[in-house]
């Protein structure tokens, strides 16, 4: 069986750098981490969200009879006050300036209006907005009613009222920013917001057909048609009952979800980093301009390629030898990982894999595009290789493993002490029971497998507990095997 031939690397459970990301993304991440401390994963995701949005009109990604567009919708669930807003404060001016450049380049400043005064679908017009109003009118638009000055009561064909289309905030292109996603209706359901959830499910459908277009018939008989081609950047704090929300809500399954509860010690480190910047005003716009220009160049490059291949979005990107094999390899890792989960969440974990396969393919394409800036021969910059798959996997594996771990933790009924959470007792128990070499060392793999067994936790959780406790162990390496033993003074429970 192929499953048995795949060994899940240790990096899968931590912050993996199995394959270095394209230089532009690494530079972007490094810059963001100066303002939004320790938020590596969302920093990387923010770049992909922007790049996927501005290239979506030029790329369609085939999956047999199915198709994906390049948009990435990201949901960041994390402890309050840990850098979500500060990351957006860097991301927002970049996207706004980039929108202006694209609109100027395409000649699409402002929303076009037809001869009757109706707002038209602003094709290629980019803007950002913060979603704060969840009414149908605000989201998908409406028709304003006016008295017809030319109304003739004696003419049966004459209309007493004129209806003019007003575009909703979802209309068009750009980033849809949900700063308080908990109020969207996804986490806190209410009748008023049910439609908002339906709309999100709709416009997140692939742009390969008409399934992403939102339609609603109004009381007046008019039909509102909203073409939302936006990408969602959503943030919220960790809600209660996340397991049920994830299992029941299709919205989250269409997004790349990153869940993280920041410990008190890490929050302290973040606050210290912020305090060290106190009294210092950085008015430099150099970083913003650098990334705006870099992304704009990528936009023009992809569009030029799209025009070169005859305006066929399926031909913009090519897929090199070994591409599908690389996808299969990463899928098997995720499948094996899901199989190691607790039975209560195994089905949810496995269901997410189908969506993640699509995300992995999108991100591989976006890595290929970002990689163009480092290519010696730019003509080769539209071929997706196994290396791009491995680069994309950095983001998908981290999001997936943190989500699964969160689900596992949410299942625990009993209130545990901090020491119990760290599983120190189990680690010491297993460490004492295993046979040792002449120097008192045991296999690290045997230790983790033992803890996983007696604590009834997944491989991911066992490894993360180990990361919290490894300072209590001495380590040695013989060949490829890692050996460990308790330090003096840590032998007691």
Describe the SSE topology.
Elements (H helix, E strand, L loop, with lengths): L1 H4 L17 H10 L7 H16 L5 E3 L2 E3 L5 E5 L5 H23 L22 E2 L5 H5 E7 L13 E7 L7 E4 L15 H10 L9 E5 L5 E5 L3 E6 L5 H7 L1 H4 L2 E5 L3 H12 L10 H23 L9 E2 L3 H17 L3 H28 L12 E2 L1 H25 L7 H4 L2 H10 L8 E2 H12 L3 H11 L3 E6 L2 E6 L7
Helix pairs in contact: 2-3, 3-10, 4-10, 11-12, 11-13, 12-13, 15-16, 16-17
Tag the structure with descriptive keywords.
493 residues, alpha/beta, Arc Repressor Mutant, subunit A, five-stranded parallel sheet, 16 strands, elongated, disordered N terminus
Explain what you see:
Helices cover 45% and strands 14% of the residues. It is α/β, with parallel strands linked by helices and 493 residues long. It folds into 2 domains: 2-106 and 191-205 and 231-410, Rossmann fold; 418-486, Orthogonal Bundle (Arc Repressor Mutant, subunit A). The strands form 6 sheets. Strands 4-7-10-3-11 form a 5-stranded parallel beta sheet. Strands 14-16-15 form a 3-stranded antiparallel beta sheet. Strands 1-2 form a two-stranded antiparallel ribbon. The protein is elongated and about 105 Å long. The two termini are 41 Å apart.
Short overview:
By secondary structure, the chain is an alpha/beta fold. It has helices at 2-5, 23-32, 40-55, 84-106, 136-140, 194-203, 242-248, 250-253, 264-275, 286-308, 323-339, 343-370, 386-410, 418-421, 424-433, 444-455, 459-469, and strands spanning 61-63, 66-68, 74-78, 129-130, 141-147, 161-167, 175-178, 213-217, 223-227, 231-236, 256-260, 318-319, 383-384, 442-443, 473-478, 481-486.
């Amino acid at each position: 069986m192929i499953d048995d031939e795949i060994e899940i690397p240790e990096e899968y459970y931590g912050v993996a750098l199995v394959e270095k990301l394209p230089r532009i993304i690494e530079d972007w991440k490094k810059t963001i981490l100066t303002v939004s401390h320790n938020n590596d994963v969302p920093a990387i995701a923010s770049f992909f969200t922007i790049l996927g949005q501005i290239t979506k009109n030029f790329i369609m990604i085939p999956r047999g009879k199915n198709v994906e567009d390049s948009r990435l919708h990201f949901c960041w669930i994390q402890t309050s006050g840990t850098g979500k807003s500060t990351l957006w404060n860097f991301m927002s001016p970049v996207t706004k300036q980039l929108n202006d450049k694209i609109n100027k380049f395409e000649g699409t400043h402002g929303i076009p209006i037809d001869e009757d005064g109706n707002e038209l679908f602003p094709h290629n017009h980019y803007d950002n907005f913060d979603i704060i109003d969840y009414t149908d009118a605000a989201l998908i638009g409406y028709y304003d009613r006016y008295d017809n000055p030319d109304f003739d009561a004696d003419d049966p064909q004459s209309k007493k009222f004129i209806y003019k289309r007003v575009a909703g905030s979802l209309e068009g292109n750009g980033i849809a920013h949900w700063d308080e996603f908990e109020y969207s209706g996804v986490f806190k359901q209410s009748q008023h917001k049910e439609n908002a959830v339906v709309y999100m499910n709709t416009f997140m459908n692939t742009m390969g057909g008409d399934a992403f277009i939102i339609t609603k018939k109004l009381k007046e008989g008019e039909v509102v048609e909203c073409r939302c081609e936006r990408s969602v950047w959503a943030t919220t704090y960790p809600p209660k009952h996340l397991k049920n929300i994830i299992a029941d809500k299709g919205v989250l399954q269409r997004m790349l979800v990153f869940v993280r509860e920041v410990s008190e010690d890490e929050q302290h480190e973040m606050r210290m980093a912020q305090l060290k910047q106190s009294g210092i005003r950085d008015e430099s716009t150099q970083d913003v301009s650098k990334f705006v220009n870099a992304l704009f160049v990528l936009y023009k490059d992809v569009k030029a390629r799209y025009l070169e291949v005859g305006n066929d979005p399926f031909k913009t990107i090519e897929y090199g030898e070994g591409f599908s094999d690389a996808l299969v390899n990463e899928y098997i890792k995720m499948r094996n990982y899901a199989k190691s989960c607790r039975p209560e969440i195994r089905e949810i974990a496995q269901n997410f894999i189908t969506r993640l396969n699509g995300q992995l393919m999108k991100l591989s394409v976006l890595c290929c595009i970002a990689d163009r800036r480092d290519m010696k021969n730019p003509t080769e910059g539209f071929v997706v290789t196994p290396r791009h798959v491995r680069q994309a996997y950095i983001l998908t594996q981290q999001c997936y493993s943190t989500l699964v771990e969160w689900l596992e933790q949410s299942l625990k009924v009993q209130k545990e002490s901090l020491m119990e959470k760290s599983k120190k007792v189990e680690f010491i128990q297993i460490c004492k029971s295993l046979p040792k070499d002449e120097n008192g060392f045991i296999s690290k793999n045997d230790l983790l497998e033992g803890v996983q067994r007696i604590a009834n936790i997944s491989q991911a959780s066992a490894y993360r507990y180990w990361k919290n406790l490894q300072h209590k162990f001495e380590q040695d390496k013989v060949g490829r095997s890692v050996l460990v033993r308790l330090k003096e003074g840590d032998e007691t429970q």
